[in-house]
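SEQUENCE-TO-STRUCTURE ENTRY
===========================
What this section holds: a protein sequence and its matching fold, both as plain text.
Question of interest: how does this chain fold, as expressed in C-alpha coordinates?
***
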Amino acid sequence: MIFATLGPEGNNHVLVLRRYLEARGPADAEVRLFDDFPAAFAALVAGEVGRVLQCTAHFSHADCVGRYMHRVFPVDVFVAGSHPLALLARRDIAEPRRVARQPATRYYTDLSSFDEEIDAPTTVAVAEGLVEGRFEAGICARQVLEQHPDELRLIEELGPALDVWVLYGTQPLPEGSSLSV
Protein backbone atom coordinates (compact mmCIF):
# COMPACT_ATOMS: atom_id res chain seq x y z
CA MET A 1 0.00 0.00 0.00
CA ILE A 2 1.18 3.54 -0.77
CA PHE A 3 0.98 6.10 2.03
CA ALA A 4 1.10 9.77 1.02
CA THR A 5 1.86 12.93 2.92
CA LEU A 6 3.37 16.38 2.48
CA GLY A 7 7.01 16.62 1.41
CA PRO A 8 9.82 17.44 1.29
CA GLU A 9 11.88 14.79 3.06
CA GLY A 10 12.85 15.97 6.54
CA ASN A 11 9.61 17.74 7.44
CA ASN A 12 7.31 16.77 10.32
CA HIS A 13 4.75 15.02 8.10
CA VAL A 14 7.44 12.64 6.82
CA LEU A 15 8.87 12.15 10.32
CA VAL A 16 5.47 11.25 11.78
CA LEU A 17 4.46 9.04 8.82
CA ARG A 18 7.67 7.01 9.16
CA ARG A 19 7.08 6.66 12.93
CA TYR A 20 3.50 5.57 12.23
CA LEU A 21 4.55 2.95 9.70
CA GLU A 22 7.25 1.63 12.04
CA ALA A 23 4.72 1.28 14.86
CA ARG A 24 1.61 0.18 12.97
CA GLY A 25 2.81 -1.00 9.55
CA PRO A 26 2.23 -2.46 7.08
CA ALA A 27 5.83 -3.62 6.66
CA ASP A 28 5.73 -3.35 2.86
CA ALA A 29 4.32 0.20 2.80
CA GLU A 30 5.65 2.69 0.27
CA VAL A 31 5.79 6.43 0.94
CA ARG A 32 4.95 9.05 -1.68
CA LEU A 33 5.50 12.74 -0.95
CA PHE A 34 3.38 15.53 -2.43
CA ASP A 35 3.99 19.27 -2.73
CA ASP A 36 0.54 20.05 -1.33
CA PHE A 37 -2.41 18.27 0.24
CA PRO A 38 -4.99 18.94 -2.49
CA ALA A 39 -2.78 16.89 -4.84
CA ALA A 40 -2.37 14.11 -2.24
CA PHE A 41 -6.12 13.90 -1.63
CA ALA A 42 -6.82 13.91 -5.38
CA ALA A 43 -4.38 10.98 -5.73
CA LEU A 44 -6.21 9.16 -2.92
CA VAL A 45 -9.60 9.60 -4.61
CA ALA A 46 -8.08 8.50 -7.95
CA GLY A 47 -6.73 5.32 -6.36
CA GLU A 48 -3.08 6.28 -6.94
CA VAL A 49 -2.33 6.06 -3.20
CA GLY A 50 -4.05 4.07 -0.47
CA ARG A 51 -3.76 6.46 2.47
CA VAL A 52 -2.99 10.13 3.19
CA LEU A 53 -1.58 11.35 6.51
CA GLN A 54 -2.30 14.96 7.51
CA CYS A 55 -1.71 16.97 10.66
CA THR A 56 -4.89 18.72 11.80
CA ALA A 57 -2.83 21.87 12.48
CA HIS A 58 -1.91 22.15 8.80
CA PHE A 59 -3.54 25.22 7.24
CA SER A 60 -5.18 23.15 4.46
CA HIS A 61 -6.81 20.61 6.78
CA ALA A 62 -10.32 22.12 6.88
CA ASP A 63 -10.35 22.71 3.12
CA CYS A 64 -9.35 19.11 2.38
CA VAL A 65 -11.94 17.69 4.78
CA GLY A 66 -14.65 19.82 3.18
CA ARG A 67 -13.60 19.30 -0.43
CA TYR A 68 -13.45 15.50 -0.12
CA MET A 69 -16.39 14.90 2.23
CA HIS A 70 -18.17 11.60 1.43
CA ARG A 71 -15.20 10.48 -0.74
CA VAL A 72 -12.37 10.42 1.81
CA PHE A 73 -12.74 9.20 5.40
CA PRO A 74 -10.63 9.20 8.57
CA VAL A 75 -9.41 5.65 9.18
CA ASP A 76 -6.99 6.28 12.04
CA VAL A 77 -6.23 9.12 14.45
CA PHE A 78 -3.32 9.58 16.86
CA VAL A 79 -1.21 12.16 18.70
CA ALA A 80 2.45 12.66 17.83
CA GLY A 81 5.20 15.18 18.47
CA SER A 82 7.14 17.04 15.82
CA HIS A 83 10.85 17.60 15.52
CA PRO A 84 11.85 19.86 18.43
CA LEU A 85 11.44 23.39 17.10
CA ALA A 86 13.31 26.63 17.72
CA LEU A 87 13.25 30.26 16.73
CA LEU A 88 16.61 30.77 15.01
CA ALA A 89 18.34 33.78 13.48
CA ARG A 90 21.25 34.42 11.16
CA ARG A 91 24.45 35.12 13.12
CA ASP A 92 25.32 37.99 10.77
CA ILE A 93 22.14 39.94 11.64
CA ALA A 94 22.25 41.49 15.11
CA GLU A 95 18.57 42.55 15.23
CA PRO A 96 16.46 40.52 12.82
CA ARG A 97 13.33 42.42 11.73
CA ARG A 98 11.74 39.79 9.49
CA VAL A 99 10.79 36.29 10.62
CA ALA A 100 9.74 33.33 8.47
CA ARG A 101 7.33 30.68 9.69
CA GLN A 102 5.03 28.00 8.37
CA PRO A 103 1.51 29.33 9.09
CA ALA A 104 0.72 26.60 11.65
CA THR A 105 3.69 27.81 13.77
CA ARG A 106 2.69 31.48 13.87
CA TYR A 107 1.47 31.32 17.48
CA TYR A 108 4.18 29.04 18.88
CA THR A 109 5.92 32.07 20.38
CA ASP A 110 5.50 35.84 20.54
CA LEU A 111 6.68 37.26 17.21
CA SER A 112 5.56 40.84 17.91
CA SER A 113 9.15 42.14 18.09
CA PHE A 114 9.52 41.46 14.35
CA ASP A 115 8.36 44.04 11.79
CA GLU A 116 7.30 41.44 9.24
CA GLU A 117 6.20 37.79 9.26
CA ILE A 118 6.87 35.80 6.10
CA ASP A 119 4.85 32.70 5.23
CA ALA A 120 6.77 29.62 4.12
CA PRO A 121 5.17 26.34 3.01
CA THR A 122 7.09 24.14 5.49
CA THR A 123 9.53 24.39 8.38
CA VAL A 124 12.05 22.81 5.99
CA ALA A 125 11.59 25.79 3.64
CA VAL A 126 12.19 28.11 6.60
CA ALA A 127 15.42 26.26 7.44
CA GLU A 128 16.60 26.39 3.83
CA GLY A 129 15.87 30.12 3.65
CA LEU A 130 17.79 30.78 6.85
CA VAL A 131 20.83 28.82 5.71
CA GLU A 132 20.77 30.46 2.25
CA GLY A 133 20.43 33.95 3.78
CA ARG A 134 16.96 34.70 2.36
CA PHE A 135 15.45 34.92 5.86
CA GLU A 136 16.79 36.82 8.87
CA ALA A 137 15.02 34.63 11.45
CA GLY A 138 12.57 31.77 11.45
CA ILE A 139 10.84 28.89 13.21
CA CYS A 140 12.19 25.52 12.12
CA ALA A 141 13.62 22.26 13.47
CA ARG A 142 16.12 22.82 16.29
CA GLN A 143 18.52 20.37 14.62
CA VAL A 144 19.21 22.96 11.90
CA LEU A 145 21.24 24.93 14.46
CA GLU A 146 23.50 21.94 15.10
CA GLN A 147 23.92 21.48 11.34
CA HIS A 148 24.82 25.16 10.76
CA PRO A 149 26.31 26.57 14.00
CA ASP A 150 28.49 29.09 12.18
CA GLU A 151 25.58 30.65 10.27
CA LEU A 152 22.74 30.46 12.81
CA ARG A 153 22.06 31.27 16.46
CA LEU A 154 19.31 30.36 18.90
CA ILE A 155 16.73 32.96 19.89
CA GLU A 156 14.32 30.63 21.68
CA GLU A 157 13.81 26.89 22.23
CA LEU A 158 10.21 25.90 21.41
CA GLY A 159 10.32 22.11 21.81
CA PRO A 160 8.18 19.68 19.84
CA ALA A 161 4.61 20.52 18.85
CA LEU A 162 2.18 17.85 20.02
CA ASP A 163 -0.52 17.54 17.37
CA VAL A 164 -3.43 15.38 16.29
CA TRP A 165 -2.79 13.43 13.08
CA VAL A 166 -5.40 11.85 10.81
CA LEU A 167 -4.89 9.02 8.35
CA TYR A 168 -7.41 9.08 5.49
CA GLY A 169 -8.68 6.34 3.18
CA THR A 170 -11.54 5.96 0.71
CA GLN A 171 -13.68 3.58 2.79
CA PRO A 172 -15.37 4.68 6.03
CA LEU A 173 -14.67 2.79 9.22
CA PRO A 174 -17.06 -0.07 9.91
CA GLU A 175 -19.94 0.62 12.28
CA GLY A 176 -18.86 -0.02 15.85
CA SER A 177 -15.18 0.76 15.20
CA SER A 178 -13.20 1.61 18.34
CA LEU A 179 -12.41 4.98 16.75
CA SER A 180 -16.11 5.90 16.43
CA VAL A 181 -18.23 7.25 19.26
About this structure: The CA atoms of residues 175 and 181 lie 10 Å apart. Residues 12-24 form the longest helix (13 residues). The radius of gyration is 18 Å. The chain has a mean pLDDT of 95.
